[in-house]
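S.,

Sequence below, as promised.
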Amino acid sequence: MAFSDRELLARLIQCEAGGETDEGMRAVASVVMNRVNAPNGEFARVSNGGDVRAIIMQEGQFTCTRTVNNTQNIYNMNPTGIHYDIADWALAGNTTASVGNSLFFFNPFSSECPNYFPSRIGIIYNKIGKHCFYAPTAAYKDT
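The prediction came back faster than expected:
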């Protein structure tokens, strides 16, 4: 049985940000929904008008969707109430202002966030917990 969008998002939230505060988990969910609703660029093409599953499962985007040599993946997660609550919140159209229109995040395993990520298409917007969040630059539209 395939997971619903809600289940996939709850599992992704737990896997990517389960060690963060509620705000950190909301920030990760917001990035997913920002990608789903991106007006242009790569994510607009991938979401094709709002496909949450396509965004979550886009190859190479989220560490937690990789299953080869990665036991901490969405298929091995057991989301709890908070993960479902945040998934429901995001799927209802909510995002957190703390990440604005960020389309990228990562944990640099460092106290500092690089200015750009993944390249010059994302510029640092905020750091929440151990994750750095990046808003698209003008160059993102050409991806």
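The longest strand covers residues 122-128.

Coffee later?
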